[in-house]
Amino acid sequence: xxxxxxxxxxxxxxxxxxxxxxxxxxxxxxxxxxxxxxxxxxxxxxxxxxxxxxxxxxxxxxxxxxxxxxxxxxxxxxxxxxxxxxxxxxxxxxxxxxxxxxxxxxxxxxxxxxxxxxxxxxxxxxxxxxxxxxxxxxxxxxxxxxxxxxxxxxxxxxxxxxxxxxxxxxxxxxxxxxxxxxxxxxxxxxxxxxxxxxxxxxxxxxxxxxxxxxxxxxxxxxxxxxxxxxxxxxxxxxxxxxxxxxxxxxxxxxxxxxxxxxxxxxxxxxxxxxxxxxxxxxxxxxxxxxxxxxxxxxxxxxxxxxxxxxxxxxxxxxxxxxxxxxxxxxxxxxxxxxxxxxxxxxxxxxxxxxxxxxxxxxxxxxxxxxxxxxxxxxxxxxxxxxxxxxxxxxxxxxxxxxxxxxxxxxxxxxxxxxxxxxxxxxxxxxxxxxxxxxxxxxxxxxxxxxxxxxxxxxxxxxxxxxx
Length: 467
Prior knowledge:
It contains four helices and 24 strands. By secondary structure, it is mainly beta.
């Protein structure tokens, strides 16, 4: 089945300058040379994003050899339908109204004090987004250069930006049930669905002991398999408040296992509490078949955050080949326990200045954003690239947007939706690994549930404690 059309809208290379003659700013403004500048970037139907703006002297020119990303918007086909409705008969209210990206430029520091915004509005910049639907087949640059701030430009300030849209097709997978119920996984495109995988939820002692019986192509020594998996966990095996041994194996339509997610470190309540703490997280290994056995591809850690956010924190790292003891962090963020959210790996987001709140795309440890959305950034990513933050990073050929998984919160029927960039899927095992990761993310919401709350029976084995 063909992938689904998506568009990546990028705002990059921001800069602000003022004319030399403007030495005394208006009373209601703070001069940008003496105070930081920032902007709020708004697109209809999307939460706004916030970014800093470097100030340049009039004699300086922005460095366009590298692309410093300020904001990213990911648009699906349904988003495009909302943003670009079918042509209608013009009316007094709709005549001449076109879709545009709006940037509100402020001087002063971002944030609020005592409920009052500290920044002062310098002006607004609007960039028309004509023929946005045409981007599905080709890249479009809507603006690249300087423009005056404000409709009249009376304040003399000029704003530099680049607004570009690129096609970003993705494969979309939908679980037909909750991962612990061993559901089918469908590939979807609009209203069309076709089965591509089946998931088998079980407990690790069954998966490790019997995996060689389920598929002869993955022959391995049963005893060494147990020791190999346990080497990634901890020595915290003890009775009491713990959840352990969960596993999900992903099979293709022929019944061959093509990926797995195995809980290798139990989710244990910290002493004197009923929650899994960040200092003692549970963990999963995401496994792929190779050389007649399972090979580690990634490691996911999860825990229960404290405080008013009350979310499930997580960290996902890729395990390079021949280096099972070290990993490269791709995502580290928080999901809301009540609302759920999106787990995202997007390497382009590593370049976004994320020191501001109000960016609904999520929260990363490198820059605390919203605690209920997504988060992503390879540790130490930094720096721009000529292709809008989609350059290669160490140990991996992944570029730009990699994948996302949408899950529900506690007590809700969660059927994860997984989006995977086409450029990162070359075989069935590639897609299956991301599906297994999505299952682990979803099950971590249950594994991090307070131990004072009982889990559903599918997640309990032999009436173990904690269920």
